[in-house]
Amino acid sequence: MTEHYRSTLDYIGNTPLIRLNQASAATGCEILGKAEFMNPGGSIKDRAALGIVRDAENSGQLRPGGIIVEGTAGNTGIGLAVIGNALGYETVIVMPDNQSKDKIDTLKSYGVTLHLVPAVPLKDPNHFTKVSERIAGELNETHEHGAIWANQFNNLANREFHEQTTGAEIWEQTHGEIHGFICSVGTGGTLAGVAHALKARSDNVRIGLADPTGSALYNYYAHGELKAEGSSISEGIGNSRITDNLADTPIDMPYQLPDSESIPLVYELIKKEGLSVGSSSGVNVAGAIRMARDLGPGHVIVTLLCDSAMRYRARLFNRAFLAEQGLQLPDWLNLD
Ligand code: PMP
User: Fold this and answer.
1) How confident is the model over 214-243, as pLDDT tens digits?
2) In a mutational test of the pocket of ligand 1, which residue from 45, 95, 269, 279 has the highest number of ligand atoms less than 8 Å from its CB?
């Protein structure tokens, strides 16, 4: 009867849609968070990783015994490691050295080959994405079963998988009664895929961008200029360019969220909803609340809870680190 049982990769996606009671009560809307932290690798990026791997298998580029190489802020690497381990591929991950120790330790615990490189601007030839592209090219030449570069920023298999899964699930889970969707952007695969899926089903769904300070995207969608202001402790989100995945995304309502607005929401989600989620989820919920205020009461707005707070233990629960950023722990959180 083994056909009744499913294995790891079958549990990527089909995540629950959770009503956020505080945000809903504060706005008079239904604000719903899709629980992406419940994916096997613990984040939204399991979906992009699975979409990219399946696409590379189908095109014949990824062969049995081959290697998957990627540059990542962490979660995509963890997703690729989950999938690589489950399917018998090795994974080689290149990551900037300014990301949380918790993500680095998690990657190591999956047994990936990890290269930590200095965090440098995108135009630098040693940017983590370019290093990963070079390593993939070299391994593809030398390894007997070849290697692929996942290329999550510009590989459209990323957004296509979100269109087919995340977007379609949100439509079904809300029974088509949805007025707004909003999330932050790293590669843009999630926002683009969900936006296309929802707009194809209804012209009335508004699409929002929740962009942290320090990212250039808000100014692009609000004022037509790629320009970054300020900074943020959030990880995995924000961008200085329009990726191939993000291009042509119909964004109706762009918002810029400072940490002073998003990080307190992370603690509120923990304390009032029992949801321990990471900083990008705080940005997403902050964006959903702004969108709800602009649309007015009575609307259904969906956003994403991308990963767990435990992925940022050394930052989100570190009084001294937070103080350096002008942020603070809430009074109820007693870590001493
Ligand atoms: N939240 C977290 C925690 C992430 O790691 C990422 C991706 N790096 C995102 C949000 C953004 O997702 P996408 O790449 O699909 O834009």
Assistant:
1) 999 999 999 999 999 999 999 999 999 999
2) 45
